[in-house]
Specification:
InterPro entries: Fe-S_metab-assoc_dom. The structure is a single chain. By secondary structure, the chain is mainly alpha-helical. It has one domain: Sufe protein. Chain: A (Alpha-Beta Complex), CATH 3.90.1010.10. It has 6 helices and 3 strands. The chain has a 3-stranded antiparallel sheet with strand order 1-2-3. Helix 1 packs across helix 3 and helix 3 runs parallel beside helix 6. The radius of gyration is 14 Å and the shape is globular.
Length: 142
């Protein structure tokens, strides 16, 4: 797991339940704005498993690091928090590191005790689609 993401996971896992929601809200503000060329979600994939509209894009760079973009309305702070966690935790990570992120990431963070299973399922789908996009790009390389 990328070191930044591992640190975030450990912080959440160690936090008291009553603080977890506050921590999530902080990450909902960590989602960088989309560049102009992605504002209409052109080239982004929608994650239908999320209760709110959520779009993402992963792009493997020539140096094998992955650039990610996420978009979700501000009225969905929990879902935005998933994006913020990934945006911060995966910043500078390689494709191989991201593909090694455990699929049960949000459960490992202890979020199952603080938010609904439906939201956990949405967060898990975000990670799965991100990893699929990376695998697809890796498979298409010479």
């Amino acid at each position: 797991m990328p070191p930044k993401l591992a640190e975030i996971v450990d912080e959440f896992a160690a936090a008291p339940r009553e603080v977890v929601l506050e921590m999530l809200l902080e990450f909902s503000d960590a989602v960088p704005p989309l560049p102009d060329e992605l504002r209409g979600h052109e080239g982004m994939e929608q994650v239908p498993e999320c209760q709110t509209q959520f779009f993402l894009r992963a792009e493997v760079q020539p140096d094998e690091t992955v650039k990610t973009w996420f978009d979700c309305p501000p009225e969905a702070p929990t879902t935005r928090a998933f994006a913020g966690i990934l945006a911060e935790g995966l910043d500078g990570a390689t494709a191989a590191e991201i593909l090694e992120v455990p699929d049960d990431l949000y459960s490992r963070m202890g979020l199952a005790t603080a938010i609904s299973p439906l939201r956990i399922r949405g967060g898990t789908a975000i990670l799965a689609r991100l990893k699929r996009q990376i695998r697809d790009q890796e498979d298409g390389r010479p």
